[in-house]
Amino acid sequence: MVPVQWYLLLATAVFCIGLFGILTRKNALLFLMSVELMLNAANINLVAFSAYWGNITGQTFSLFTMALAAAEVAVGIGIILVLYRNFDDVDVTLAKGMRW
Amino acid sequence: MVGAFDYAPAIVLLPFLSFLVALAGGKYLPKGGAFGGIAATAGSLVLSAWVFLTVSAGNAYNETLYTWVAGAGEETTRLTFGLLLDPLAAMMLLIVSLVALLVHVFSLGYMNDEGETGLPRYYAGLGLFTASMLGFVVADNLLMAFMFFELVGLCSYLLIGFWFRDSGPPSAAKKAFLVTRFGDYFFLVGVVAVFATFGTAKFAGEGAFPVIAEEALAGSAAEVTTFGFAPETWFTILGLLILGGVIGKSAQFPLHTWLPDAMEGPTPVSALIHAATMVAAGVYLVARMYGFYALSPTALGIIALVGGFTALFAATMGVVKREIKQVLAYSTISQYGYMMLGLGAGGYVAASFHLLTHAFFKALLFLGAGAVIIAMHHDEDMWNMGGLKERMPVTYYTFLSGSLALAGIVPFAGFWSKDEVLYEALVHGLGGSPLLLAGYAMGLVAVFFTGFYTFRMVFLTFHGEPRTEVARDPHGVRWNVKGPLVVLGILAATIGFVNMVPVQDLTGIHLEFLHDWLAHGELSALTAEHYGELLHDYAHYTSADVASYVAGAVSLALALAGAGLAHVLYNVPEPTEHTAKLGAVKDLWYNNYYQDEYQIWIATSVVLPLSRLADKFDQGVVDGVVNGVSSVSLFAGSRIRRIQTGVVSNYAALLTLGLTALLVVFGVLGGWFV
Amino acid sequence: MIIEALIAITFVASMAVLLAPNAWAGRLAATLSLLPVVGSLYMWSRFDATGNALTGGTPAFETTVQWLELGGYTLNWHVGVDGIGLPLVVLTTVLTTLAVVSAWASIDDRQSQFYGLMLFMEANLLGVFTALDFFVWFVFWEAVLLPMYFLIGVWGGPRRKYAAIKFFVYTNIASLAMFIGFIALVFGLGDSVSSLDMPAIAGALRAGELGSLYGIPAATLRTVAFVAMFLGFAVKVPIVPFHTWLPDAHVEAPSPVSVMLAGVLLKMGTYALLRFNFTMLPETATQFAAPIALIAVISVIYGAMLALAQQDLKRIVAYSSVSSMGYVILGLIAYTTYGVGGATFQMIAHGLISGLMFMAVGVIYNTTHTRMVGDMSGMADRMPVTTGILVAGAFGYMGLPLMAGFAGEFFIFKGAFESTVHAAMPLFTAVAMFGIVVVAGYLLFAMQRTLFGAFRLETDYEVGPAPISETAPLAVLLVAIIVLGVAPDLFFGMIQNAVDPLLEFGGELS
What compartments host this protein (chain A) (predicted)? Predict the structure, then answer.
């Protein structure tokens, strides 16, 4: 059995990749992917601890998260389409009307 | 047994009813509701006479009729209304209701026949005025007295400002209310303080406050709160506080300035104000609670001094006035000064006597002046008159009767009463009170001036040749003007006979009926006899031995001298103004010693700028702080909100930073790094 | 149940009016608002409470229903009225109806919303004056602000937004201070209370159960909480120097709203001061007697001086409200039966009189379209009835005897003069009483210049008498003022009954 620390390290790595993507990329699609990465990092944690404790709750929860992620993608893609329609680009830094 | 006292509340309620009727239905009634007022005051007069007869049979009435505030439990003060009918009140009721009736009748001639508009308002005002004054007269406690005192002030405001479309009357009305309000402020403090001190404000009966005060001074264990003062000092302070209201309403120096301005009102109203209602209220109040004032020699001394000074002060101003009503106004101030002098000098009966005679002769003079004003088509300047004697004999002879009374010429009413006032001041002054002597001296000098200005007025108005077209062909007056004049003319000539002390001293015939009337009564604490004892025991008044006829002769001589001087100067076919010979003094007198000026100066140059300053302070500093706080937060917000750039990546970075910072903090605090 | 019915009916009525067409929303609102009037008068006739609701007395029409539990505290729906609450309930219902009727002639857009908000406010005000549970009370207390905000902000004058936001933010921040202060007290009481029931809290506080909280000793906690609550209510009253929102709000608000603001909303502040500060923390109040009396005197004189400087009729009345509220504070701190009772009576009297004054000024404004003293003169010539009532009301404001204002002021003066909470109380009272001269000064000056003299007003239309829908409410108010002035015991008896249990700290009864 793989110790739970390894899973945690994996999840941290995935999460950091996602975070890095969000902080550095301007492309909305990459943004969305990065968010998915971070969500999956959380899923890994859930599943890992579920296995570790022998408790099914975590795995159930990760299923929910996946459903949620799917929904999020649907919404996200919609937003990106609108972004593209309005700015002719999918650069997230262009849309900054929502400020002071 | 149903007697006069059971109907006594109706004396007050009848005129009040006429107020309501005139207010609600005056438009639809003939003569604008005048008949209602006449009927009501006549009813009051009849009931007052009945009460008078009942009181003269040795009865008195002192009952609580209405509980204004019941109070919770036994310890709480009850505030009540009630009637106190003793000889003084009975006398005053007669005066007020008689004068009010005559004024109502006269108003038919002065207002209705002259085609005034707004008559329902006028008669409503008269009704309320009469009702308030009657309520004040019968009040059995200080609070009720104060309440009706204020209502009297309201009515004076309404009636002085009757011709509200002109600019003068509203201003005069405002001044009258405001100046008397200033006095009433002290009165109200006094009322509150009396409650706090004695726990009651009743004038008479068991546990009345003058009685408690007397007991407290005698040391017989009555519970009073004197706020750390000696009882004598505190009672003097209380007396002086209440005196503030008296000085305001009775137009004593320095709060007399409203009264000459009040001449802007209709002349019958002036008659009512000066003779029987508002101005009389102040003096009546002192007489009503004389048992309290008699305990404090300081308060009495101040009353006498203010009275004496006002008598002289106002008389001098009356000398130079041009308008007939102005002369009368200053004479009123002066005469009430005499009453105050009498009260302060321990002459309770003398002052009440003067109150009685003055009511009739001053009402007469005002109504006479009103008749002259009708005749002159509302021109009041005496220099435009002259020679009216032949053209309006009834007015002339009745007016003359009033003038003789005012000047104090024997045997008219004013002589007897003014003489007695001065006599009291003299004997008690010689008995060891320099204050009273000073008051006496001023009162005596004022007698000369009174004789002079009174006859200057008579000669200028009625004697000589007519000086204008209007005076040659005056407007006629009808029975409703002449009737009241005749009644009052007879009274002014004869009412003094009720109390002829000098004649009694000379002849030994018993002639001091008013003394007898006021000296005894069922309510022994309210009698002149009792007041005499109080004056002797607490104010330490002692009488010097002076023959009353000697004092009377002195003042008569002075009055005659004044009248004689007026005769020499003005009883000529073509009189000229002699006032210029007085030089600077004339300006001083004509401008009322600049009393109005300084009071207006206080109002417009001190209070108003102060209030503007307060407003600036309020807008600038107080509101400035409020707005400042809001603009600081607005400014801070406008800066801090720049964090919100609208760029998603920045938010993500901030989130990450925040999370990291939190982790670090938790780590440091949780000791992860140790 | 009648209190619930009253509040519920008013809420339902406000919703019904909100949905009604604009054309007859005003008529409907007036008709429906008669129901609470009848209800409150019925309550008055059946009133059987004894003592003070917060100090162990039995309130009338009391109901207690457990509502929910929160953080270890039970929240109850607890309502009831005692001799302090009922007069204010009657005042609220009567004044609302009259304000609604007087609005007919002047409100001419979005009527259904206007009248709906008025009734909504009435419902919440009724809640404030009847609630005996802090949570319930606080919900109503805050909910009053909302309709008021919109009434000023939507139907107001040119600077309505400024005034509405100032009013809302100022009073809301003040509520926060009060809330913190009160909750600190509740926490400080620890286990001795298990609900936010006001009688229970008042009882515990008066019994000295207050303990320390987070290391703050009980004495300090008491003082701090008192000050926080006092400041919170002082804004609402308002007491100088927290009064500056009031003239702005009054000037911008339409007249019927001013009537409610001056007539009822200001009384929330004094009512709350009486219920919280002066009932729950009497020792602290008497400890601060001198500064509170001083601030009351300053309110009276300073407010009156400010009124003297104004040219706008509404500002004059607004500042004079500050002055009158100063009297109320003076009466409250006196801790005598006439002082506290008089203060409560003055709340009613001032509610009626200031309501009348604002309404009358509104009537004149509707005719002249100006409120500046200098712009008009001789209005008595064209509007005799309105002038007559305005003059009568102004004299009522000056404290003319046999009108309600005199009764209230005299009771306060008498009570404060006799008070033993501080040696200088007679002096404070005497100084405050000078307000009766200043009030006469500015009202008489304003009346002389606007009402009397030759008629002068530049308009391109004929100036005539006001419609009956505007003069009738004025007349009703005037009658009410005179009736209460002649027979103050209609309310004063029950007020005294409710006030007497509070007096143990103010020296002897007198």
Answer: Membrane
* CA gap C23, C107 in Å, rounded: 11
Q: Which residues of B are less than 8 Å from A95 in CB distance?
A: 646, 648
User: What ipTM, to 2 d.p.?
Assistant: 0.92
Range of the domain at C330: 2-143+287-502
Q: Please tell me the distance from the alpha carbon of residue B26 to that of residue B33, in angstroms, as a whole number.
A: 5
C474 found inside a domain: yes
Query: Cβ contact (<8 Å) for A98 and B646?
Result: yes
Q: pLDDT tens-digit profile of C428-458?
A: 999 999 999 999 989 998 888 888 888 888 7
Please confirm whether the linkage preceding B411 is cis (ω < 30° from 0): yes
3-state helix, strand, coil in chain C (%, to 5): 75, 5, 20
A85 and chain B: CB distance < 8 Å anywhere?
no
CB count in 10 Å sphere of residue B48: 28
Average pLDDT of chain B, as a whole number = 86
Per-10-residue mean pLDDT for chain A, 100 residues long?
A: 89 93 88 91 93 90 93 92 90 80
pLDDT digits (tens, 9 = 90+) for B35-87: 888 989 999 999 999 988 888 888 888 888 888 888 766 567 788 888 888 88
- Coil, strand or helix: which one is B72? coil
Q: In whole angstroms, what is the distance from residue B95 CA to residue B183 CA?
A: 25
Answer whether residue C187 is part of any domain: no
Contact C294, C421 (CB under 8 A): no
Q: Does A26 touch chain B (CB under 8 A)?
A: yes
Lowest mean pLDDT among B312-326, B541-555, B649-663: B541-555
Within a domain: C424: yes
Residue C118 maps to a domain: yes
CA-to-CA distance for B470 and B88, rounded, in angstroms?
45
Cα dihedral B77/B83/B87/B89 (nearest 10): 100
- From CA C471, how far away is CA C80, in angstroms rounded? 35
- For chain C, positions 121-160, list CB contacts with chain B under 8 A: none
Helix axes C384-397, C468-486, angle to 10 degrees: 30
Q: Which residue of B has its CA nearest to C246?
A: B623
Nearest to A96 among B641, B646, B653 (CB): B646
Q: Do C302 and B182 touch (CB under 8 A)?
A: no
Structurally, at CATH architecture level, domain A4-87 sits in Orthogonal Bundle (1.10)
- Cβ-proximal residues to B206 (8 Å cutoff; 6+ apart), any chain: none
Length of chain B: 674
Per-residue pLDDT of C257-315, as tens digits, reads 999 999 999 999 999 999 999 999 888 888 899 999 999 999 999 999 999 889 899 99
Tokens describing residue B158: 């309404």
Q: Where are the alpha helices (DSSP H) in B583-670?
A: 584-590, 595-601, 608-617, 623-640, 648-670
A98 touches chain B (CB under 8 A): yes
> B313: Cβ–Cβ under 8 A, 6 or more apart, which residues?
B253, B333, B334, B337, B593
